[in-house]
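1st attempt posting a full record on here, be nice pls
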Amino acid sequence: MSTIAPYALTDRQRRIVACAREWIAEHGEAPSVRELGAAVGLTSSSSVAYHLRRLREHGLTVETRGRRSDRCPHCGQ
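the predicted structure (as tokens):
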């Protein structure tokens, strides 16, 4: 469990984390970036990616499913 204070996250970031947890509980797999965006009211996958990056900076990793790449999901290399 993360030691980050919950107040350090924005409302949207808290909703992203909550929606991802609910999606996994309901569907048994992580949501795609677009599905996660639709669940929190974001239409741009770039906006979702921005919030996911910010969450990683806070020490929280929200898993998403989608295209696989050989790049590290954290540093991009």
